[in-house]
Amino acid sequence: MKHLLGIEGMTRSEIELVLETSEAMLEISQREIKRVPTLRGRTVINVFLESSTRTRVSFEIAAKRLSADAINVTRAGSSLSKAETLADMARNLAAMSADVLVVRDSVAGVPHMLAERVRVPVVNAGDGCHEHPTQALLDAFTLRQSLGSLEGRVVAIVGDISHSRVARSDIHCFTKLGAEVRVAGPPTMMPAGIEALGVKPCFSLEQALAGADVIVMLRIQQERLDGALFPSVREYSRTFGLTQRTLALAKPEAIVLHPGPINRGVEIASDVADAEPSRILDQVTNGVAVRMAVLYLLTGGQT
Amino acid sequence: MSPPDLHPAEPHAESEPSDAGGRVVLDAAGIQRATTRIAHEILERNAGADDLCLVAIVRGGQPVAELIGAQLSALAGRPIPSGALDITLYRDDVVARGVRPMPRPTRMPFSVEGKRVVLVDDVSFTGRTVRAAMDAVLDFGRPAAIQVAVLVDRGHRELPIKVDFVGKNIPTSRAERVVLRARPDGELEVAVV
Fold it and tell me: Domains of chain A, with CATH numbers?
């Protein structure tokens, strides 16, 4: 692999390579000394131009557990505030012999643009409403832990499908791994033509959850919406929120995922988020392993 | 992205399809005798099985460690703790740029602190695998001692590393490969190919 820009451009065998490599990485985080020397002397630069706690810390921990040096760049205090272009900033970071650039930006396509302009492997850590490939990979890894395989499983993705990069990456990832994917949300949050991605659109939570093996609840991004897409948070919660009552529509052993941060009582009730079917904290644990695998594979220098 | 090569040439022996030909240097009976003798030597050297544990180097060392472990447990009258160590992420040839070999999960279900750790591999060659395995073991704690047992020592050491217990010394040329493999009937054998 040269870059990790999106799941859309990956083959099933590449996805499986990352997931299988992640199995070995997971054990390292369970040791007392959580570090292996593989990336000793390598430098991973995390360029996070949009706020993030989980993903940024996860990439930083992943780099450090492989013995790489991890450097974080955020928008505030970077030379972007001196009107340097993104491409120039990336070239400068590459000129300091960075071995991997991990990039998050609120604009779709920024990691792709940088990947064309620097000779360093680029990892997309989330670009606007486009893709968040490591989230999809850690979701798939978490599901494989419980289900073994995604082949033939029914996955319901619920929330703001239009604006969710997690939804887009999950759809590509789960369908490539053989799952049957349904998406659900208010009509204002369902993109026209979503069927083209091989998923079944549902306009009620009941329809989406009936017989589902997996439920992925998306975060309602209140900061992104300014009230335009649904009348009120309360109404959204009553029609598309996951509660013990609506969870009962899915298979009895159904698993619940959420990319975080969760809005308790909005898209997911606290007693569901904290209960047995929820794998939300496993997702976070597994995220470090999956990102270790990605950094390990990308630094091999193979095209 | 091009399809990745999962299993590039490994520097030590791998499980091989059995009709691969070559010269068989150790058959199933020979392997059984060698591992039985190694088990006795391990007990003799360590004055018993107290604090002893076996750590197989993934993947070639695993069948050998199973044989030695069974003998040791029978002789000691109790199961000897055993683990499996994947050293992919400790190898010095992986740190250089190149195809990434797939790391496999490590399983160390006991503490090595104060233990006498016997590393088990199928073939010892350059010594680089043992070097990496020692680094890996030390990341799990401070054992009282680390020893090495191998089924075959084929020479050509590149590091100042010696093995403590050897099933059979087999002179080889660098170009040859030594493999531990299962025949169609399930019996293990070692061949030079």
Answer: 12-130+284-298 (3.40.50.1370), 133-279 (3.40.50.1370)
Does residue A41 surpass a pLDDT of 80?
yes
Q: How far apart are CA B136 and CA A26, in angstroms?
A: 16
Q: Is A289 on the interface with B (CB under 8 A)?
A: no
For chain A, say whether B92 makes contact (Cβ under 8 Å).
Answer: no
Of B158, B84, B94, B76, nearest in space to B117 by CA? B84
Of A1, A33, A36, the CB nearest to B89: A36
Question: Going from the N-terminus, what domains does chain B have, and what CATH number goes with each?
Answer: 18-93+102-192 (3.40.50.2020)
pLDDT of residue A222: 72
Q: Say what the pTM is.
A: 0.91
Instruction: State mean pLDDT over A21-26.
Output: 95
Which residue in the set A1, A31, A41 is minimally distant from B4, CB to CB?
A: A1
For residues B77-114, b (16+ Cβ closer than 10 Å) or e, as one string?
A: eeebbbbbbbbbbbbeebbeeeebbbbbebebeeebee
pLDDT tens by residue, B99-123: 788 999 999 999 999 999 999 999 9
Q: Which chain B residue has its CA at the smallest distance from A65's CA?
A: B89
Chain B residues near residue A3 by CB distance under 8 angstroms: 1
Convert the pLDDT of each residue in A100-122 to its tens digit. Answer: 999 999 999 999 999 999 999 99
Q: Identify which of B95, B105, B140 has the shortest CB distance to residue A40.
A: B95
CB pairs under 8 A between A and B: 80
ipTM of the complex: 0.82
Which residues face B70 on adjacent strands?
none
